[in-house]
Amino acid sequence: MTKKWTPASAADGVEQVLKILEGKWKLVILFHLFGGQVKRFSELEKAIPAITQKMLIQQLRQMEADGIVTRTIYHQVPPKVEYRLTDWGQELCPALDALLKWAENKQ
């Protein structure tokens, strides 16, 4: 069943989504994980050299708590942690692609 939106509820819904995505690095992390990619923590660190380890951990934890990213811990020596998008997180890809296309059309 499709939700019936009012202008106020639609604005509120979009605002909630933007709060989930806010943060300097979340969108960068998302683009590194799109397409079903699985990345180890160290791979994300290397792929985003300007981010600090503390900030990467913080952003990934927030994204995990919001249901966008899933973390898999392998109990081995040395420990191995992998990140991937949840199905819900992967569904952001077309929406963000549409935003990119929209931004390209700016005159």
User: What are the low-pLDDT stretches, counting only 5+ consecutive residues below 50?
Assistant: none
The total number of structural domains is 1
What share of residues is helical? 55-70%
* Biggest β-sheet strands, sense, barrel: 3 strands, antiparallel
Order of helices and strands: HHEHHEEHH
Shape: globular
Rg from Cα:
16 Å
CATH secondary-structure class:
Mainly Alpha
Structural class: alpha+beta
Our count of helices gives: 6
CATH superfamily: Winged helix-like DNA-binding domain superfamily/Winged helix DNA-binding domain
Query: Numbering strands along the chain, what is their spatial order in the largest sheet?
Result: 1-3-2
Amino-to-carboxy terminus distance: 38 Å
CATH overall fold name: Arc Repressor Mutant, subunit A
CATH architecture: Orthogonal Bundle
Mean pLDDT: 92
Strand content: 5-15%
DSSP strand tally: 3
In words, what does this structure look like?
- It is a single chain.
- A three-stranded antiparallel β-sheet has the order 1-3-2.
- The model has no long low-confidence stretch (mean pLDDT about 90).
- The protein is globular.
- It is α+β, with helices and mostly antiparallel strands and about 110 residues long.
- It has one domain (about 25-105): Arc Repressor Mutant, subunit A (Orthogonal Bundle), CATH 1.10.10.10.
- The protein starts with 6 loop residues before the first helix and ends with a helix.
- Strand 2 (about 70-75) and strand 3 form a beta hairpin.
- Helix content is about 55%, strand content about 15%.
